[in-house]
From TrEMBL, chain A:
Originating organism: Liquidambar formosana (Formosan gum)
Root EC class: oxidoreductase
Gene3D superfamilies xref list: Dihydrodipicolinate Reductase, domain 2, NAD(P)-binding Rossmann-like Domain
Top-level taxonomy: Eukaryota, Viridiplantae, Streptophyta, Embryophyta, Tracheophyta
One Pfam family named in its UniProt record: G6PD_C
EC identifiers of the protein: 1.1.1.49
Domain Glucose-6-phosphate dehydrogenase C-terminal: 296-590
Protein name: Glucose-6-phosphate 1-dehydrogenase
Catalytic activity: D-glucose 6-phosphate + NADP(+) = 6-phospho-D-glucono-1,5-lactone + NADPH + H(+)
UniProt xrefs under InterPro entries: G6P_DH, G6P_DH_AS, G6P_DH_C, G6P_DH_NAD-bd, NAD(P)-bd_dom_sf
TrEMBL record, chain B:
GO cellular component terms, semicolon-separated: chloroplast stroma
Annotated metabolic or biological route of this protein: Carbohydrate degradation; pentose phosphate pathway; D-ribulose 5-phosphate from D-glucose 6-phosphate (oxidative stage): step 1/3
Catalysed reactions, as listed in the record: D-glucose 6-phosphate + NADP(+) = 6-phospho-D-glucono-1,5-lactone + NADPH + H(+)
Domain Glucose-6-phosphate dehydrogenase NAD-binding, residue spans: 112-290
Coiled-coil regions, chain positions: none
One Gene Ontology term from the biological process aspect of the record: glucose metabolic process
Record key words, sorted: Carbohydrate metabolism, Glucose metabolism, NADP, Oxidoreductase
Region spans: Disordered: 1-21
Record-level Gene Ontology MF annotations: glucose-6-phosphate dehydrogenase activity; NADP binding
Glucose-6-phosphate dehydrogenase C-terminal domain segment(s): 293-587
EC main group: oxidoreductase
Protein name: Glucose-6-phosphate 1-dehydrogenase
Enzyme Commission (EC) number: 1.1.1.49
Length: 597, 595
């Protein structure tokens, strides 16, 4: 039984506007009405929440960490909203946001999505298909245009052909797929230009204007390009192709620098051209279904929150493994390594979501404030709490798998870790002393991403005798498997049916594939939708990013300065043995490498 | 991952005492006056400690020596420590007689009194065979049927063999085993009140026992009015001279406090407390057994197990058939006595009890009695009674209760009852415990439902719509059919929106344990043979249970409360909903969601 509440594509704006409303009772009734009546007016409501967000935003940062307080400049994209407000009613009173008035503005607004680096792999494999899926699900505004931008010379038709090859329709919604695809492709265009040419971006601007046809124009730039040209592209886009009447937002993907300094430099450069709330730093792991579900599990169930602390939780494990190596594309990776590639962003973000205190509301700023608090309560990583590894070649069943350094794009003497395990600690009242273990690796025996929560032993367990000697095996464990085969299960002890009194650890489980036959949307779909709607919950704020780098930078520097040699592990194995010793040091046993899983 | 234990052993594991506990006990024994143990006691129990926990007997003794003592013990009055001390020493005597020769010399005779009855045929003999098949019976054993019908051994064997089945997962050698088992079955015909006939039985038993140390178990599968006669005859004429003698009795244990008290007094004329095994076969059900395991061997449940987190608890029993022409016995008792006062109340007590000191029978039963004694006696306004009426559906018509020829036409006996109970202790104050039991309902099931409170300050309130009750967590233990445990949790529906859904974290037994689950009677018989009393009802428990229900039962009868009629095969009287609503509860089994 689903207790439904929101429409198909709605992310959070109903809640965000609600919490905003909570602060003023005048607001309250109003938004209530809107929320009830406006299923099709999604984007309108969104603007309300957007606007409400842009004001509290800067305060949010200050609240969060006084020192870092950013300059409170009038936010660029507020202007159009204010303008609109002005049109609707001269006073900025709440009453002005009349549902009817917004309908008016919706008709006039349009979104242009420019994929910068359109010929790249990510764009082809993820971004265009995600945009199409959103279109298919009716989650895009009525008026939208998709632009590909890259250096290659290509016609619109060529782009369409390229894009069409990667589009698929959801398994459960095949009807009209071909039609929809055609309609979508008609809205896709291409503009060829240099990434550092303001002139070329000005040309793009002109083309965009044409398509926007005088409507309020909102523009989203997705930078699917290497980090060294981020700034150039941002500069050109912002100076020459910003929207004059609507918002302009820029989505950037990792890497966000290599350490605290380079990350800060990048942020500073971005901020020369963009305001904080125009920057959408994507961490696609945060768009994963079960990561989204983590907060729902914690905060909408009574039974988990009482257990969510050092009192009941013995340790938490964040595990990411891939069953393939760099496969000839190690050039980028070798420069970063697994710690920067997976741990410092994806796993740390999940950790922060897992461990944060209950936020005031589900608004982006409230959640991100709590996440930053967690990060700032953490000890920077120390070398002795980290184990690094690199895969070596391995022959099995006649097939030889290459070593990392066999990759042609990787230097022969590379010390870049392809595996790392680390123990982290959060020195706050809730988590003091609880080890948070992370493990990430390439070329391992399995592909998975999961969170494991191991609970403490039952104090004074009446059934101790029935458990044999290894009491660790008898503890409860909550597993949230992010991929593959999304699932949640809780390991409990129960009696084996029969005349004896044998105890057994079984799973209380929820297997997503069994319960939800619908295909689970790709993380990029959610994130793109959120960016279009201005929902920042799943994007990383500058201060979050700084706090994350502050934890990892000393370690990364030390690893590089001391030229720490990674422990080799065979391709396709369970990773270096050192990870077990690291775990043992904190009385932990990796949950994914036990006999049972 | 299964942890070891022998297949037939029950929770009270034979354990190695750690050196430290040994020292501790030795120390105690020196310090306190040692009451000399009765000479027979060590021989009595000598056979069984392979399985049972040593501490159980001595403690029993104390309640046995002073029949009313149990109540004191559990109150923690001064009697307690003393009682505890004087049997500690015997714990250490015990392991010594456990020597091989003696073990070989003992034998077990199981006499099923009322062997020609339905229960005996359907449950007791098959359970005994299953135990034999699983190698859970001692090497030397004899099964005797006793009833008034004239029958030869051969005829008994024929009768039994028709109901024996081999477990699905262990078909091999089944026939061989069956033959072996039947060879150990005999029959003796006699009157239930004839000491002479029991003396004949005794001599037959002696013959089979052939000088070995005899232990005797009598299973009384007979109507309650002849309980006492049989117990008298059996105890006077057919008791074991130097082994133990135990008697298993089935409900009804009286009709109210008074008659139950009388029955107990009469039984105690011939038997000591520790010889009486009052069976409640619900306690032998797999998931009821599992209830304690769930609570006490998992960290995640116990912190939630109180009024802080639990909004209400529901104990639900329903049958999808009526009395079907056999209402004679039932009409005299009614659903409250038949199901609630025993099965459901026992489960409630197990559910709500504090953590016992150990898993020993006396410790567990002490805690159960405490729960019962903390409860308010039932009030008429907290009870709904119902009776099924005839109903036609799909061309088929189902009879009313009073259409049963064995039931008086004007019977007011409830075939359905719902009740709200309260435990006035620190853990459960204010939490409604709802019970519901009925015949001729739309479904057959027995389950425990635990509904948790709302999430305080729920961030996702908006996403739940108006009915927040639907959004609470719920733990369901389904006892039958299809044993399962599931926990309803809220999660996000996969997709771009933020719709919440209540799904289940579940463990379906059939899926995980394809093996057949043993019948409750197997476990209970085995426990009785091994002297494990955890699942049997002690006299003071029974008294406490009756004390809760007797005033209500009297009032119902005196005021001739007319039961609300409900159609055969329906969901029961609507009154049950109003009763629930009065305490802000919504029945979990009738909420529209299927489970």
């Amino acid at each position: 039984m689903a207790s439904l509440s929101s429409t198909n594509c709605r992310a959070y704006s109903s809640t965000s506007s609600s919490s905003y409303a909570a602060s003023s009772s005048v607001h309250h009734g109003h938004h209530q009405r809107l929320a009830v009546s406006s299923v099709p007016k999604r984007f309108l409501r969104n603007k309300i929440s957007l606007q409400s967000q842009s004001n509290p935003f800067s305060t949010g940062v200050r609240m969060q960490d006084g020192a870092v307080a950013t300059k409170v400049t009038p936010v660029e994209n507020e202007t159009p909203l204010k303008l609109k407000e002005g049109l609707l009613s001269v006073t900025s009173s709440e009453e002005s946001k009349d549902a009817a008035g917004f309908e008016f503005s919706e008709d006039k607004s349009t979104v242009s999505i420019t994929v910068v680096g359109a010929s790249g792999d990510l764009a082809k494999k993820k971004i265009f298909p995600a945009l199409f899926a959103l279109y298919y699900e009716d989650c895009l505004p009525e008026h939208f245009t998709v632009y590909g931008y890259a250096r290659s010379k290509m016609t619109d038709a060529e782009l369409r052909t390229m894009v069409s090859r990667t589009l698929t329709c959801r398994i459960d919604k095949r009807e009209n797929c071909g039609e929809k695809m055609d309609q979508f492709l008609k809205r896709c265009f291409y503009h060829s230009g240099q990434y550092d040419s303001e002139e070329n971006f000005a040309e793009l601007d002109k083309k965009l204007r044409e398509h926007e046809g005088g409507r309020v124009s909102n523009r989203l730039f997705y930078l699917s390009i290497p980090p060294n040209i981020f700034i150039n592209a941002v500069k050109c886009a912002s100076l020459s192709a910003s929207s004059s009447s609507g918002w302009t937002r820029v989505i950037v993907e990792k890497p966000f620098g290599r350490d605290s300094e380079s990350s800060a430099a990048l942020t500073r450069s971005l901020k020369q051209y963009l305001e904080e709330d125009q920057i959408f730093r994507i961490d696609h792991y945060l768009g994963k279904e079960l990561v989204e579900n983590l907060s729902v599990l914690r905060f909408s169930n009574l039974i988990f929150e009482p257990l969510w602390s050092r009192q009941y939780i013995r340790n938490v494990q964040f595990i990411f493994s891939e069953d393939f190596g760099t496969e000839g594309r190690g050039g980028y990776f070798d420069n970063y390594g697994i710690i920067r590639d997976i741990m410092q962003n994806h796993l740390l973000q999940i950790l922060a979501l897992f461990a944060m205190e209950t936020p005031v509301s589900l608004d982006a700023e409230d959640i991100r404030n709590e996440k930053v608090k967690v990060l700032r309560s953490m000890r920077p990583l120390e070398l002795e709490n980290v184990v690094i590894g690199q895969y070596k070649s391995h022959t099995k069943g006649g097939v030889t798998y290459p070593a990392y350094t066999d990759d042609k794009t990787v230097p022969k003497d590379s010390l870049t870790p392809t595996f790392a395990a680390a123990a982290l600690f959060i020195d706050n009242a809730r988590w003091d002393g609880v080890p948070f273990l992370m493990k990430a690796g390439k070329a391992l025996h399995t592909k998975r991403a999961e969170i494991r929560v191991q609970f403490r032993h039952v104090p004074g367990n009446l059934y101790n005798r029935n458990f044999g000697t290894d009491l660790d095996r008898a503890t409860n464990e909550l597993v949230i498997r992010v991929q593959p085969d999304e699932a949640i299960y809780l390991k409990i002890n129960n009696k084996v049916p029969g005349l004896g009194m044998r105890l057994d650890r079984s799973n209380l489980n929820l297997h997503y594939a069994a319960r939800y036959s619908k295909e689970i949307p790709d993380a990029y779909e959610r994130l793109l939708l959120d960016a279009i709607e201005g929902e920042r919950r799943l994007f990383i704020r500058s201060d979050e990013l700084n706090a994350a780098w502050a934890l990892f930078t000393p370690l990364l520097k030390e690893l590089e300065e001391k030229k720490i040699i990674p422990e080799c592990y065979p391709y396709g194995s369970r990773g270096p043995v050192g990870a077990h010793y690291l775990a043992a040091r904190y009385n932990v046993r990796w949950g994914d490498l036990g006999l049972e899983q | 991952m299964a942890r070891h234990l022998s297949p037939c052993s029950s929770s009270s594991t034979t354990t190695t005492f750690s050196p430290s506990s040994f020292n501790h006990e030795a120390h105690l024994s020196r310090k306190f006056v040692v009451v000399p143990s009765r000479t027979y006691s060590s021989t009595w129990v000598s056979r069984i400690h392979t399985r049972i926990n040593q501490r159980m007997h001595p403690q029993l003794k104390s309640s046995n020596g002073h029949p009313l003592n149990a109540a004191y013990m559990q109150d923690g009055l001064p009697g307690n420590p003393l009682a505890k001390e004087h049997f500690e020493p015997r714990m250490k005597q015990r392991p010594i007689p456990l020597s091989e020769p003696e073990k070989a010399e003992s034998t077990l005779s199981i006499t099923v009194v009322g062997a020609s009855g339905d229960l005996a045929k359907k449950k007791i003999f098959p359970a005994l065979f299953a135990l034999f098949y699983e190698d859970c019976l001692p090497e030397n054993f004899t099964v005797f049927g006793y009833a008034r019908t004239k029958m030869t051994d051969e005829e008994l064997r024929n009768m039994i063999s028709r109901t024996l089945t081999c477990r699905i997962d262990k078909r091999e050698n089944c026939d061989d085993k069956m033959d072996l088992f039947l060879k150990k079955c005999f029959y003796h015909s006699g009157q239930y009140n004839s000491e002479e006939h029991f003396a004949e039985l005794d001599s037959k038993l002696k013959e089979k026992e052939a000088g070995k140390l005899p232990n005797r178990l009598f299973y009384l599968s007979i109507p309650p009015n002849i309980f006492v006669d049989v117990v008298r005859c059996a105890s006077l004429r057919a008791s074991s001279a130097n082994g133990w003698t135990r008697v298993i009795v089935e409900k009804p244990f009286g009709r109210d406090s008074k008659s139950s008290g009388e029955l107990t007094t009469c039984l105690k004329k011939y038997l000591t407390e520790e010889q009486i095994f009052r069976i409640d076969h619900y306690l032998g059900k797999e998931l009821v057994e599992n209830l304690s395991v769930l609570r006490f061997s998992n960290l995640v449940f116990e912190p939630l197990w109180s009024r802080n987190y639990i909004r209400n608890v529901q104990l639900i029993f329903s049958e999808d058939f009526g009395t079907e022409g056999r209402g004679g016995y039932f009409d005299n008792y009614g659903i409250i006595r038949d199901i609630m006062q025993n099965h459901l109340l026992q489960i409630l007590a197990l559910f709500a009890m504090e953590t016992p000191v150990s898993l020993d029978a006396e410790d567990v039963r002490n805690e159960k009695v405490k729960v019962l004694r903390s409860m308010r006696p039932l009030q008429l306004e907290d009870v709904i009674v119902g009776q099924y009426k005839g109903h036609s559906k799909g061309g088929k018509s189902y009879p009313a209760y009073t259409d049963d020829p064995t039931v008086p036409k004007d019977s007011l006996t409830p075939t359905f009852a719902a009740a709200a109970l309260f435990i006035n202790n620190a853990r459960w104050d204010g939490v409604p415990f709802l019970m519901k039991a009925g015949k001729a309902l739309h479904t057959k099931r027995a389950e425990i439902r635990v509904q948790f409170r709302h999430v305080p300050g729920n961030l996702y309130k908006r996403n739940f719509g108006t009915d927040l009750d639907k959004a609470t967590n719920e733990l369901v233990l389904r006892v039958q059919p299809d044993e399962a445990i599931y926990l309803k949790i809220n999660n996000k529906v996969p997709g771009l929106g933020m719709r919440l859904d209540r799904s289940e974290l579940n463990l379906l037994y059939r899926a995980r344990y394809p093996r057949e689950i043993p019948d409750a009677y197997e476990r209970l018989l085995l426990d009785a043979i091994e002297g494990e009393r955890r699942l049997f009802i002690r006299s003071d428990e029974l008294d406490a249970a009756w004390a809760l229900f007797t005033p209500l039962l009297k009032e119902l009868e005196e005021k001739k409360i007319v039961p609300e009629l409900y159609p055969y095969g329906s969901r029961g009287p609507v009154g049950a909903h109003y009763l629930a609503a009065k305490y802000n509860v919504r029945w979990g089994d009738l909420s529209g969601e299927d489970s």
